[in-house]
Amino acid sequence: MDEKHDLTATQLEHSTSIQQHGTLKADLVEARAKEYIAVEHSLSLWQAIQSCPMAIFWCLMVSMCVIMEGYDTILIGNFYAYPQFAAKYGQFIDENGRHQLSAAWQAGLGNSSGVGCFFGVMLNGYLVNIFGQKRVLLGALMVLSCTIFMTFLAPNIIVLMVGEFLCGLPWGVFASSAPAYASEVLPMALRVYLTSYTNMCFIIGQLIAAGVLAGLVNRPDEWAYRIPFALQWMWPAFLIPILFYAPESPWHLVRTGKIAEAERSLERLYRKGAVGVNVKATLADIIHTNELEEELTSGTSYLDCFRGVERRRTEIACVAFAGQVLSGSSFAYNSTYFFQQVGLSTDTTYKLNTGGTAMALVGTLVNWFALMPYFGRRNIYIVGMFTMSMILFIIGILNVWTDRESIGMAQAVLTLAWTFCFQLSAGQLGWSLPAEVGSTRLRQKTVCLARNAYYICSVISGVLQPYFMNPGQWNLKGYTGFVWGSTAFLVFLWAVFRLPETKGRTYEELDWLFAKRTPTRKFKKAQVDIFDREERQKLEYGLKNTAPA
């Protein structure tokens, strides 16, 4: 291509629209965007890995922030059956002479961090648009370093609950920033792996917590639960100096008009000379997608996520993420309290818990190598949700014969099978789908809304679950499987009719499919021509005339 017609980042940065540079330059941006899309569709997984090793590295580092939330999620939930913790913070002693937290305090303590995460996520949607992913993440890590002191030194359960709430604020930032960052710095072939790697980090945190709990359960003093809290400090100490050098998301820089900085960020993320790497073409596609969305969408506020075609994208993101809770995770995933209530010993309970978390890690790897490369997101999610609902119904049916010693162990094994199935499906895709399905200008807010849909469901289930299981309340034991089996089946039905296939689609193509109001089952094979200007003008006109006032 003639160099005198080249479109530089510096030239673009001095205008608000590509069209201000003339038709020739607009055509050049479009041509380079076409080049980028063609490469994206032809790039193999191995070529994608070779093209952007540094982008992969920075995604891994950012996602590691989520380890802390995964660590604490299993920590608090499993402390209820922890003898030393229950002795310190419990309210009564049961008929077996064991200290217990009341159902009300289990609900309050277990949900305090979730409430904090809710507000942290909402705040993150605003902060990232102003400061970018990098600065917000560094600030959240510094805040967390301070709030951990409250949980570590808590003299009573009230202070502990407040500390958990304050820790939840930065955890919410991590959970909503990690998948969004990965989706913005990686090629399409790697998108689902590194957005779902956030879930892997969640599991790693849970596995570390399970191992720590199993190793300290027989310790007779208060350090049995203080040491697990103290270990949370190692993550900010490790991540702050590393993330200080992380590149900012090029999509954020383009949205804020910093085109030259976006080009430099891309040069740091991609390997020069690798197959499929053309920084100018990638930058042109980001600019082209941003301009397309400016034409097809009305703004970048939370309210815009519920307007026009964005409403459908927000619904898909929210239900897909909330499906992690509605599939029964509060019952079958953090199951040590359930194991205790069905008569298993404390030692067996924590060994099974560690094994279950290890199975979750294995399920994640199986999904990466045996499912995601060959099957679409839609099919994996649907089959997984149906299978989990059936497992939960079987657990409920088995509870009829609780007088037999083997039944408790059979129910425990089924929860492990559920955990494996969860990580083959909703456990991974609950993170990936919100990062893929939202428009790029509203991606951060779409991920934030989806994560908060998860937190809302998590808080509700966190309030109900102790009452389902607590021997002083409803004491349903395995019958709880009927409750969560029903919600999982409802999500399965939703997915059949509402969850589209996003595998193999660039962000521009997804914008087009949603703007055209493509039926769910036609997403996979629908033909897309995002560069047909006449069709684009018709579509833009139609959207403006059907958008709400």
Question: What is the gist of this entry?
Answer:
It comes from Coniochaeta ligniaria NRRL 30616. The chain is an all-alpha fold and 549 residues long. Helices cover 73% and strands 1% of the residues.
Protein model, in words:
By secondary structure, the chain is mainly α. It has one domain (about 50-245, about 295-505): MFS general substrate transporter like domains (Growth Hormone, Chain: A), CATH 1.20.1250.20. It is about 75% helix and about 0% strand. It has helices at about 10-15, 25-40, 45-50, 55-65, 65-80, 85-90, 105-130, 135-155, 155-185, 190-215, 225-230, 235-245, 250-255, 260-270, 280-295, 310-325, 330, 335-340, 345-370, 375-400, 405-425, 425-435, 445-470, 480-500, 505-515, 535-545; strands spanning about 90-95, 100. The protein has a two-stranded antiparallel ribbon. A hairpin with a 5-residue loop joins strand 1 and strand 2 (about 100). The relative contact order is 0.13.
Write down how many β-strands occur, each being a DSSP E stretch of 2 or more residues: 2
What is the CATH class name? Mainly Alpha
Under the CATH scheme, the architecture is Up-down Bundle
Q: Determine the fraction of residues in helical runs and give it as a percent range.
A: over 70%
- Backbone CA Rg: 24 Å
Gap from first CA to last CA? 45 Å
Per DSSP, the total helix count is: 26
Mean pLDDT: 81
Shape label: globular
What share of residues are in beta strands? Answer: under 5%
Low-confidence stretches: 1-7, 9-24, 545-549
Spatial sequence of strands, sheet with the most strands:
1-2
H/E series, N to C?
A: HHHHHHEEHHHHHHHHHHHHHHHHHHHH
Full CATH superfamily name = MFS general substrate transporter like domains
Main beta sheet strand tally, sense and closure: 2 strands, antiparallel
Membrane topology: Multi-pass membrane protein
Keywords: Membrane, Transmembrane, Transmembrane helix, Transport
Pfam families: Sugar_tr
Main location: membrane
